[in-house]
Design goal:
This protein is an alpha+beta fold. The chain contains 7 helices and 5 strands, in the order ααααββββααβα.
Length: 195
Amino acid sequence: MIKKVLENIAYLYYPKNICAWTERDKLIASDEYKKLRSLIDSFDTEESIRERKVLTDEFEQDYTLKEFQDFSKLDHWEDRCLTFFLNVIENGELKSINLYISFLVPYYVIQTITHKNQMVIPQSKIDELEKNSSETRKIDELVLEVEKIVENKLSYQKFPKELLNVVLEDISFQDSYLGEFKMFNAFFNNQSVRE
């Protein structure tokens, strides 16, 4: 049932059977796109920034979560969510917590990533940062803390995991062709997310 509800909400913001690649002018002229663009624009205002501050103020009270960075891209990227990012070092590995908070539906997604074989930060620096860190919580515990904050402060729920990669066959947007656009893309952004 929730799948059908979410599909119907998606169709309010994305026109059916218009390819973003070959019919861009038609997409931009559609009522659905205009509604989506208007909503995106409304989340890039001073009022929205104040509302986001409620969340970031809560993160500020935690010695690790205060390092969350706001990577929301509401302008030309047309993200449908707020995006927060936090690096964590655990067991000698660089990991990250990505928090996506939709503004189309009252849902959020948290994705954790282990950056294996990354070349940006040398292993010696990772080891040094871990040694000097006072954080004793594991990444899973930090995720639970973030979930608690988002659910208590915003009254949002976790997006159903089993629906994240469900394809909406008749929607195309940004760099997704018809048959490639997923539920995560509809309500968050055009990245890929693991279940």
